[in-house]
Amino acid sequence: MFKKIQRNIDQKFLLSLDDNIWVDKINEGKVFDLNEFKIVMSTLLNTFQENDLKIYTSYHIVRN
To answer: What whole-number distance in Å separates Cα of residue 54 and Cα of residue 38?
Structure first.
């Protein structure tokens, strides 16, 4: 299972949590496996509310 994260306020997709980089296009956003996703979401929820973020899930390998 693979996931991408979108910020609802401006519809941008997370590229880098460490550098706080958000991009305009879904195909430019980082693909997270389930373990990475859990860590990233835990960190993001220190800043955002759960309803501030949209999660996209794919069961196929998605490459940037």
So the answer is: 14
